[in-house]
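Hi D.,

Good news: the full-assembly prediction came through. Inputs first.
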Amino acid sequence: MGIALDSRLELHPQVAVRPEPFGALAYHYGNRRLIFLKHPDVVAVVEALGRHHDVRAALEACGVEEDRWSMFVQALSSLENSEIIRERITAG
Amino acid sequence: MSASQLVEQMKTGLDAPICLTWELTYACNLQCVHCLSSSGQRDDRELSTAEAKKVLDELRDLQVFYINIGGGEPMVRRDFFELLEYAIGNGIGVKFSTNGAFIDADKARRLTALDYLDIQISLDGVDAETNDAVRGEGSYALARRAMDNLRDAGFGPFKISVVVTRHNVPQLDAFKELADSYGAQLRVTRLRPSGRGADTWHELHPTNAQQREIYDWLLAHGENVLTGDSFFHLNAFGDPLAGLNMCGAGRVVCLIDPIGDVYACPFVIHEDFRAGNVRDAGFAPIWKASDLFTSLREPQSAGACASCGSFDACQGGCMAAKFFTGLPLDGPDPECVSGDGQPLLEAVERGSVPRPSLDHSRPERPTPVRLTRKPLVTN
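Then the structure:
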């Protein structure tokens, strides 16, 4: 399933995010995957996803310029494949 | 940030280790000839349960995601399950290495009930003859019994961990088949001349022809076989193997030994690579600011390898392998695939090679495998 600007996502509940000089490390306790979040903006967006209506709102809230959105959607798709983030399950 | 930029960034160190090995005890029921920590007898100075929990509290605060527990044989510690449950209860995943001798049906069920736990059973041959020559008589049967018990308890995909020697290279396919038959994951790592391995490495390390065989085999199996990123010296053959192509010592990796000493990696238990002791001011100041780790995070000289076209691929290989074979640290790995390590090795005077700082081997060797743990922890 593709991630789009209107996708509603959240950090996977089994994932911990640890800040690092280059961005952050994300570790999934369930599938044991260790993922590098290689830019502080990506970290900010990943952590903001659950607090905003959709991807677009999270990108806006983090001050990401519109010409970088497609790149972020791509990055979020790959993080969803690794189960670092997931579709929000709750309605509303 | 590109992948290579990320590796450059990681060489300057992380806020906390990714791969922290903690050897809980020097006591072991086996006496493997290549033991990295020369284990056998318990050390009177080993951390108490309370001290170990204090370290775990610190690792939790540092957000260390998981730790690799080893030994010696970690399961001979009476507080093994207590520490395991304490770590997991604090959000620290545990991967532990064991020879399997203490995983009976009951323990297998107890281990299966824990979340965020991975188990690595060590096995260095697909048959008793090959395995027991390295790990001791009866050790093959013990490991297989542990695997049977974990399978029967429904543990799920445990790991079978193999140290690659010249005697088991021809068995790589058979190891994979064995792992598959258990629904287990295969992990193969490089033999290091560390601990008792200092005395056996010269006879056991793979031949040059076998190194090519290992490289081709690993390349073909990709991420389906775990390696602990330990074979990056083979990258000089061509395409890079899966994993981080760098020495992680003091940068993303470190070792806490049973008495609380912190070393740059599990393969360098030597005074020169000891960064401090957790009993002094805890672990965090050692990781963040010790002189040793600070120096390992500075740009390292390629030295004699600077003019070699393969340096970017192999990074000059493993620091520990060079150190314990008496080679300069800023030169080729003793198993340099271009052959540049061999003449240097031949020129090393045996008496000038650094010896491992600690030896907990039992005095009488070889000893039969003992199944009761009582005599081991009280001697």
